[in-house]
């Protein structure tokens, strides 16, 4: 297969960076053909205790948000005292008809190829075998940052090599090496998912978002069709 550069998806909506809290990632799932992947996040902001929730619908082959497929409930005084799970559930109910159009019903959440433990030191290279398909995966993560605090910015991309049982190799560069994200200081691959047929990959990436009040955790994904 050809070597392709895929556009990175950054899930932090411009203008809304919440300091000092850790979002919870939600795998809503794949469409039946694996061409769509939907995920979300929710949490409560640090200090003012305002709940928030986001849902993102991704076109897997292009590694882009589907037009009109991003939904957010931003933190506000009206969400003080509410649980992030409750706000997320309400948001998901609101977009239920849209998810049906994408054929994403929450039942096809895929299969995990890799999951990192919460307290595990971040590796810069992952190597593992999928015993169901016999494929061997090697994933190198490249992250660079400059500045500190509110002025920090960073870039991120992945280099992926897949070795198939017949010895064939497949190489991909995923992300934008030269693109620097303002306010993001670090990245970590938390899990790698594949759909039932094994033709779609999703890399769930944890971002450390920094400002003068501290660090927050948000999520983004990289997607790839094999």
Query: Approximately how much helix is present in the residues?
Result: under 10%
Q: Report the count of strand segments.
A: 13
- Per DSSP, the total helix count is 2
What is the end-to-end distance? 8 Å
Q: Provide the gyration radius in Å.
A: 18 Å
Shape: globular
Helix and strand sequence? EEEEEHHEEEEEEEE
Give the strand order, joined by hyphens, for the main sheet: 1-10-9-8-7
The portion of residues forming beta strands comes to over 45%
Q: Helix- and strand-based class?
A: mainly beta
Largest sheet: 5 strands, mixed
Helix-strand layout with pairing:
Blueprint: E1 5-6, E2 24-30, E3 36-44, E4 51-59, E5 64-73, H1 84-94, H2 96-101, E6 111-115, E7 125-130, E8 135-146, E9 153-163, E10 169-182, E11 184-194, E12 200-211, E13 214-225
Parallel strand pairs: 1-10
Antiparallel strand pairs: 2-3, 3-4, 4-5, 6-11, 7-8, 8-9, 9-10, 11-12, 12-13
């Amino acid at each position: 297969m050809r070597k392709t550069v895929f556009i990175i998806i950054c899930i932090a909506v411009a203008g809304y960076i919440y300091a000092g809290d850790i979002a919870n990632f939600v795998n809503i799932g794949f469409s039946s053909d694996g061409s769509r992947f939907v995920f979300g996040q929710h949490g409560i902001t640090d200090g003012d205790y305002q709940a928030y929730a986001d849902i993102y619908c991704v076109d897997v082959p292009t590694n882009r948000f589907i037009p009109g497929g991003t939904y957010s409930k931003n933190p506000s005084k009206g969400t003080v005292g509410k649980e992030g799970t409750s706000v997320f559930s309400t948001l998901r109910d609101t977009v239920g008809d849209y998810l049906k159009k994408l054929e994403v019903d929450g039942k096809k959440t895929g299969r995990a190829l890799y999951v990192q433990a919460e307290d595990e030191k971040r590796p810069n290279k992952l190597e593992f075998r999928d015993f169901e398909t016999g494929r061997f995966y090697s994933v190198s993560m490249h992250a660079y940052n400059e500045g500190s605090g509110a002025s920090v910015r960073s870039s991120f991309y992945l280099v992926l090599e897949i070795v198939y049982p017949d010895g064939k190799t497949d190489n991909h560069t995923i992300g934008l090496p030269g693109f620097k994200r303002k306010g993001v200081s670090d990245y970590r691959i938390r899990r790698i998912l594949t759909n039932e047929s094994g033709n779609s990959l999703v890399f769930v990436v944890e971002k450390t978002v920094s400002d003068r009040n501290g660090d927050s955790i948000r999520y983004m994904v990289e997607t790839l069709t094999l």
